[in-house]
Amino acid sequence: MPRDIPVGNGSLLINFDHTGQVRDIYWPYVGQENHTSGQVCRMGVWVDGAFSWLDSDDWQRRLCYFKDSLITDSTLENSKLGLRLLLRDGVDFHEDLFLRQCTVENLEKNNRQVRLFFCHDLTISGTTVGDSAYYEPEQQALFHYKGKCWFKIELLRGWPGNWQGGLDQWAIGIKDVRDLEGSWKDAEDGELSGNPVAQGSIDSVCALHLDLEPRDQATGWYSMAIGVDYAAVTRISRSFARKGPIVFLERTASYWQLWVTKGDETLEQIPANLANLFRRSLLVLRTQIDNHGAIIAANDHDIAQFNRDTYSYMWPRDGALVAATLINAGYSEISRRFFDFCHRVITDQGFLLHKYTPDGSLASSWHAWYAGGKKQLPIQEDETALVLWALWRHFDRFRDIEFIKRHYRGLIIRAANWICSYVDENTGLPLPSWDLWEERYGVHSWTVASAWAGLSAAANFAQAFGENELSLHYQRTAARMQEAAEKLLWNETAGCFSRSLLPGPDGVYLDETMDASLIGLWYFGMFAPEDPKIIRTMETMRERLSVRTRVGGIARYENDYYHQVSDDIAKVPGNPWFICTLWLAQWYIASATTQQQLEKALDLIKWTAERTLLSGVMAEQVHPFSNAPLSVSPLTWSHATYAATILEYRQKMKELSHG
Fold first, then answer.
1. Secondary structure (3-state) at 147
2. CATH code at 126?
3. What digits encode the pLDDT tens for the residues 639-652?
4. Same structural domain for residues 222 and 275?
5. Are residues 280 and 322 in the same domain?
6. Does 369 reside within a domain?
7. Torsion of CA 176, 130, 20, 107, to 10 degrees
């Protein structure tokens, strides 16, 4: 199930599903830990003896954000109950405080009392063992806690100068033990037991009562403060009570509106809906980035049902590509923290491993250290090389010499020396590693292009720092790599580059499967986008990877098995991916010589916008027949590629208009 709405501040991330209910609570790192384990924290409504949770089919929903902010603007209407809910949600930009403003509109012609119920189905630090919750009467609040993770939940009604706090009802109960479903079931009759404490596998529910006149509305507030102990959450709630909820919501909206336009050059020549989606993509990107530097791939916990693992990790490749987009958009603070992170985790030998947790620990991996009777490195070489490529883009844009100085030896030179050492002396190509899709072990066109780009970046750095011999060494290694790629990866019979050289029983062979990742050959600069061999490769890619349904788009590669929907490969070579479709648009942009040629790119950009959720969130893939989001949502890489494409489109328009 996609996450339609993420809101966060870089340490606290809250995800909502398509029903408008909370599904993920990540703290103190974005992506680590999830204190719901993907379970829904229900919200329900009782009126006139009838009850409905928000996931009922009786609700009509419109889940959106306010323009250029990370405050939601959601409307849910239930004609059977005669009610409309206006929900404004946000995480304070400074404090780890989640706010929900609930305005209830009475659509009937009589006085009514509406009761809003908020459920907390928590698994603190990923397990229910040892969880505790209690009602505190003096503060009229609920506390959940375990170890150094505390939650304080409060409810509020009224208006500035006349705020009234306190829970009208509450209950804390046992869940998933001895056939007990949890205290949330207690809410469905509109009354809660008032049980004040429980431990272990527990949940809690609290209620806020609002009295409404005919055709009138009333507003209540829900807040959740998170901190390391009782004192921390109490400090946040006191500030909240003193200033009032409106201040926190408005200051957060203003902050993100300022943030998303900080480096914004004119987008007047971009259609308004595409420009809005560009800014939305930047904001969604920011929700997926931890304040300590980790750029997380995705934080949709539902993917865990497939293999008991998630995308909530920092892949250096994804991070480098996202950082490159943010650099181009002017967000140097985020890219600096990302490169600091990479420097902290790089091995002494000079390579980065598969993926990392947001706190910098080595993450889970399916890459083996041993295969075929001998040791092999469990790496994707592009993950090391693209960090150097992105770092040069950062320096070229911001010229922050003192920042680069502290990374020159330990990150740049260390990584570049390792890339030079990890080369086949006979061919000049990199030694085998895993491909960017993490499925095949061999020598891959994307990886070769990445290694070339990383060495070229390192050569630029070495020259800038006056180490000319070292710069020449990197340049020569990269030049030999490029010559080898053109000779060994080009398939004259197929008329295009091959995606990989793979080991076989009789040596290596060319993998002729068409793969969208071949864009790396020109995107990272090893070949020009107008090179005849690149043109033939990209035209072949478009022909063989186009999805021939009403949905359209570009597949990842031929017969892509991941979340595969159709085995009609001629019609559906794979599900359409946002990044792969945008990659084709980026080639159209890079190779365009006239404004008219840019129209092909614009069509694909529009295709992307038309397949985002109403909130502006992009998944990894879409269903080739229904357009429904598939796999994780939002995918950070999708939003980064969209933003990058818009920036490249704008730049090419400028060049052509002045040319």
1. coil
2. 2.70.98.10
3. 999 999 999 999 99
4. no
5. no
6. no
7. 80
Residue 197 has a CB neighbour count (10 Å cut-off) of 12
53 three-state secondary structure? strand
The reply to whether 1 falls in a domain is no
Sheet holding 433-434, edge to edge: 433-434, 441-444, 500-504, 507-511
Angle (CA) 78-619-123 rounded to 5° is: 70
Q: What share of the chain is helix, strand, coil (3-state, %, to 5)?
A: 35, 25, 40
Alpha helices in 410-531 (DSSP H): 414-421, 445-464, 468-488, 520-523
Q: Do residues 177 and 194 share a domain?
A: yes
Asked if 588 contacts 579 with a C-beta cutoff of 8 angstroms, the reply is no
Q: The tokens of 279 are what? A: 């800014």
Residue-level length of the chain: 659
Q: What are φ and ψ of residue 556, in 5° steps?
A: -75, -50
Q: In what order do the strands lie in the sheet with 5-8?
A: 5-8, 13-16, 22-29, 32-34
Using the 3D structure, point to which of 533, 563, 595 is the last residue of a domain.
533
pLDDT score at 178:
78
User: What is the spatial distance between Cα 13 and Cα 34, in angstroms, rounded to a whole number?
Assistant: 9
SS3 312: coil
> Structural domain of residue 238, as residue ranges?
12-259
Whether 500 contacts 491, CB under 8 Å: no
Structure tokens at 160: 């500035």
Give 532-581 pLDDT, tens digit per residue: 999 999 999 999 999 999 999 999 999 999 999 999 999 999 999 999 99
- Number of structural domains, the chain? 3
Q: Is 53 found in the same domain as 200? A: yes
CA end-to-end distance (rounded Å), the chain? 47
On whether residue 371 sits in a domain, the answer given is: no
Contact yes or no for 300/2 (Cβ under 8 A): yes
Confidence of residue 180 (pLDDT cuts 50, 70, 90): confident
- Mark whether 407 and 284 lie in a shared domain: no
In angstroms, the CA 45 to CA 79 distance is 13
Cα 129 from Cα 127, distance rounded (Å): 6
At residue 265, the pLDDT reads 61
Q: Is residue 6 part of a domain?
A: no
193 and 331 both lie in a single domain: no
Instruction: Tell which of 239, 259, 279 closes a domain.
Output: 259
Collapse the DSSP code of 223 into the 3-class scheme (helix H, G, I; strand E, B; otherwise coil) and give the result. strand
pLDDT tier for residue 658 given thresholds of 50, 70 and 90? confident
> If you average pLDDT over residues 8-16, what whole number do you get?
98
pLDDT digits (tens, 9 = 90+) for 62-104: 999 999 999 999 999 999 999 999 999 999 999 999 999 999 9
Q: Which CATH number fits the domain that encloses residue 341? A: 1.50.10.10
> 511, 500 in Cβ contact below 8 A?
yes
Model confidence over 255-312: pLDDT tens digits?
999 999 986 667 888 999 999 999 999 999 999 999 999 999 999 888 876 667 899 9
Q: Say if CB 328 and CB 394 are below 8 A apart.
A: no
Q: What is the 3-state secondary structure (H, E, C) of 316-372?
A: HHHHHHHHHHHHHHCCHHHHHHHHHHHHHHCCCCCCCCCCECCCCCECCCCCCCEEC
What element of type H or E holds 250? helix 245-260
Q: Are residues 590 and 514 in the same domain?
A: no
Statement to judge: residues 44 and 177 lie in one domain: yes
Q: What is the CA radius of gyration of the chain?
A: 26
